[in-house]
Write a structure and sequence with these properties.
about 270 residues; alpha+beta; D-amino Acid Aminotransferase, Chain A, domain 1; binds adenosine-5'-triphosphate; binds (1S,3R,4R,6S)-1,3,4,6-tetrapkisphosphate
């Protein structure tokens, strides 16, 4: 259960269905962890840009200490987008060509710059994880980092097709449309904000593929109500002050994510 590398546990689920994300292993109080400070700031914000940002992330429910094998682990409690899903599909997109903060030690910068070159250099993001329920073959697939490291600017489109269950045809269209509308809100926020540059931060895409099992004859509203598609920003351990500049590193990847989902949608057959 402990992650030997980071010396801590992975994400856990609370009895009420929310997520418990362990924070920096050395932090025993919330003020010692950057990501907690970030969520506290935006969830109590008066500033309109910060307030809007809070609507583009999971809802934050504060912190909680959790006993794991006799250790007190400090966790953030947050909204779980896949709670209650029967066939959860989850795509984690780590945004930006550059994923280390400007003051990171050279060794860390070099290590980060050496990974996921096939997608970072072409589409400006990487795919550290993807879980899909493949409706056509009735099988659940879980891909880790090696899958994302093997992708390039062309094959990443196939990964999006697989993730979106494109072979299911026109039933997938409302899911794509909903994801695109939500990604558009994130893009709009980035076009106006000049407060942050995010490093190694992700966009999470989720939906329940059980919505596609019922077959033809369902209205778009019925598919959407069952699929509950979500596109949100997650993972803010490395938020950096932007000093009045746009976050071009994140925006490049985001525009390509929007392009790829649009390409999958536009190639679907009409109903
Ligand atoms: N709000 C959420 N709802 C549903 N699933 C989530 C949510 N947040 C995170 N996850 C799942 O947990 C995974 C890890 O999340 P996150 O990147 O925030 O944690 P992490 O500890 O920084 O992970 P890593 O170090 O592997 O990047 C995501 O890829 C996703 O599968
Ligand atoms: O070893 P990897 O696969 O490159 O994964 C890294 C790694 O977990 C790294 O942690 P650390 O070893 O620097 O503590 C993560 O860095 P941050 O915690 O600073 O974000 C990286 O994000 C991981 O990279 P990735 O998930 O992109 O493969």
């Amino acid at each position: 259960m402990f992650n030997a590398k980071k010396g801590m546990v992975g994400i856990m689920m609370h009895n009420d269905g929310s997520l418990l994300k362990p924070v920096c292993p050395d932090a025993t109080e919330p003020l010692e962890d950057d990501e907690i400070r970030f969520y506290e700031k935006i969830s109590n914000a008066e500033d309109p840009i910060d307030k809007e940002l809070a609507t583009l992330t999971p809802k934050y429910f504060g912190t909680q200490k959790v006993k794991v094998a006799d250790r007190d682990v400090l966790c953030m409690k947050m909204e779980n987008f896949t709670y209650g899903f029967r066939h959860a599909c989850v795509l984690d997109l780590k945004m930006g060509r550059v994923t280390s903060i400007p003051t990171a030690p050279e060794e860390k910068r070099k290590h980060e710059a050496s990974k996921y070159l096939g997608t970072r250099a072409t589409v400006g993001f990487s795919v550290p994880g993807m879980a899909v329920y493949d409706v056509t073959n009735a099988s659940a697939i879980q891909h880790g980092k090696p899958f994302g490291k093997a992708l390039d600017g062309k094959s990443v489109l196939d990964a999006f097709r697989t993730f979106l269950n494109a072979p299911c045809g026109s039933g997938v269209r409302p899911i794509c449309d909903s994801l695109l509308a939500q990604l558009g809100r994130i893009d709009s926020w980035f076009s106006r904000q000049r407060r942050y540059k995010f490093f190694a931060s992700s966009i999470l895409l989720t939906y329940d593929a059980a919505a596609l099992l019922a077959g033809a004859g369902r209205s778009e509203e019925q598919v959407l109500a069952a699929a509950r598609p979500i596109a949100r920003m997650i993972d803010f351990a490395h938020a950096w002050p932007a000093d009045g500049e746009p976050d071009a590193n994140y925006q490049e990847g985001l525009r390509n994510v929007i392009r790829l989902v649009t390409e999958v949608r536009d190639a679907l057959p009409t109903a």
